[in-house]
Amino acid sequence: MKEEYPGIPIYREVIDYVYEIYPTASFFPIKFKKEHPNAKTPRYAKPGDAGLDLFAVSIEKNKDYVEYDTGIAIEIPDGYLGMIFPRSSNSKKDLVLANSAGIIDSGYRGTIKLRYKINTNARKVVTYNIYNIGDAIGQIIILPYPKISLVEVNDLSTSERGESGFGSTGN
After folding, report:
1. What is the mean pLDDT of residues 147-166?
2. In principle, which of 49, 81, 86, 101 could form an S-S bond with 44, CB 3.0–4.6 Å?
3. 15: helix, coil or strand?
């Protein structure tokens, strides 16, 4: 390969090549598509942020949840996943991300959606504090993950914790 940015399509070899040339690179090119005319490109709010902010283009509400569509579809490379988290501003809202942290697999090509449960205390009031269209509603972090192979055994090694579960390490 030439010593220049190879462009797209993005394959594992290309990514490895970019990091070989730019070992301190702080970028990782990921293809995305705007599926809605008002979709905003995910972006870092501040230098050093780990998560890219995601923005709402539509809202679907019912008595139990609020679902936001970002209008963004993303092509995550094989061996990576997208993790969806609430933003810190979520603490000011009457919403809880329904699945705590979402996982977007590399084969998914639909738009990124976030579903929030309405805080049970907020359900008792007529209006509640939620995100609006255009607001940053969550964030995505793209991470590599190891491919594993499970091996069934009769016994597992011992550990200091053993089988102690919920609350066993402290408060």
Report:
1. 89
2. 49
3. helix
